[in-house]
From TrEMBL:
NCBIfam families: MTAP, PRK08931.1. This is S-methyl-5'-thioadenosine phosphorylase. The lineage of its organism: Bacteria, Pseudomonadati, Pseudomonadota, Alphaproteobacteria, Hyphomonadales. InterPro entries: MTAP, Nucleoside_phosphorylase_d, Nucleoside_phosphorylase_sf, Purine_phosphorylase-2_CS. Its EC number is 2.4.2.28. Residues 5-235 form the Nucleoside phosphorylase domain. Homohexamer. Dimer of a homotrimer.
Length: 292
């Protein structure tokens, strides 16, 4: 029976997870360098978990400095089957209040200073990002957050900005006109890289503020964000435990969205034209598809 191994990426204010049995830390390296921090391995029931704090312990890495490729590669190399990202985000719509959770299912990528693909250099791939999250895993994560006591909104568009500065009022109003629901600085290119690594990805946005568009509120500051996270990170951590408890004892079947084998439709470089060094480097994330 195929089992679940959950990769959990913790964002701002979420640097640890609870309830792990057989907890151990492992320092790893990948062909794209070191991930943000040591991986924390453990299990809840028969579900294995691998936790990685996105900004490193002590929040050392800015959103532009996070080694997104190394993080996803490290999770893939650890045998992770599905990735749940937990991210602090600003609300761009009245109905998402600080403290609420939003399981985003669409992204707009406005980041520009990050490596966004494992491919290139003699091996080209174009994965689909039409549906960037795994609908099954996102629903499971949303259920788990509800079971942990959160008010959860299912579906919505997360706009990823480069940062590290927060948005201007004009930008915040523009993103609202675009129909975006929440704003953060990290889910892209994380979701794109997870897709290239054939890892079903879901994100639970924890709303911490109203960015700067709402006239009756002060504009977002790190202090606001951390205050709300201090009150809500326990719910985020509990959601992870609930998710693992629900999946324990169940069989994992491939994502119904075809994500586990999505590279079968994405690789374009002719075999004779492939760069052997790049192919070697890609084995850890794309070995399955490259050896077909
Ligand atoms: C601390 S406020 C800005 C910071 O918070 C969010 O982090 P994460 O997505 O890792 O939870 C946002 O994306 C920024 O990185
Ligand atoms: N308003 C905001 N903009 C960007 N990233 C955020 N993370 C938390 N709140 C945010």
């Amino acid at each position: 029976m195929s089992k679940w191994t959950l990769g959990i990426i913790g964002g701002s204010g979420l640097y640890e997870i609870d309830g792990l049995e057989d907890r151990r830390e492992e320092t790893v390296d990948t062909p794209w360098g070191a991930p943000s921090d040591a991986l924390v391995h453990g299990r809840i029931g028969d579900v294995k978990l691998v936790f990685l704090p996105r900004h490193g312990r002590g929040h050392r890495l800015s959103p532009s400095e996070v080694p997104y490729r190394a993080n996803i590669a490290a999770l893939k190399m650890a045998g992770v089957t599905d990735v749940l990202a937990i991210s602090a985000c600003g609300s761009l719509q009245e109905q998402y209040a600080p403290g609420d959770f939003l399981a985003a299912d669409q992204f707009i990528d406005r980041t520009f200073a990050r490596a966004k693909t494992f491919f290139g250099e003699g091996m080209v791939a174009h994965v689909s990002m039409a549906r960037p999250v795994c609908a099954r895993f996102s629903a499971l994560a949303a259920d788990a957050a509800e079971a942990a006591g959160a008010k959860v909104h299912r579906g919505g568009t997360y706009i990823a900005m480069e940062g590290p500065q927060f948005s201007s009022l004009a930008e915040s109003k523009l993103y609202r006109q675009w129909g975006c629901d929440v704003i953060g600085m990290t889910a892209m290119p994380e979701a794109k890289l997870a897709r290239e690594a054939e890892l079903p990805y879901a994100v639970l946005g924890m709303v911490t503020d109203y960015d700067c568009w709402r006239e009756e509120e002060e504009a977002v500051t790190v202090t606001n964000v951390l205050e709300v996270m201090a009150r809500n990170s326990a719910i985020g951590r509990k959601a992870v435990v609930k998710l693992a408890e629900k999946l324990s004892g169940t069989e994992r079947t491939p994502s119904p969205d075809g994500i586990d084998t999505c590279l079968d439709y994405a690789l374009i470089t002719a075999e004779a034209a492939r760069n052997p060094e790049t192919i070697h480097k890609l084995q850890v994330i794309a070995g399955r598809a490259l050896s077909r």
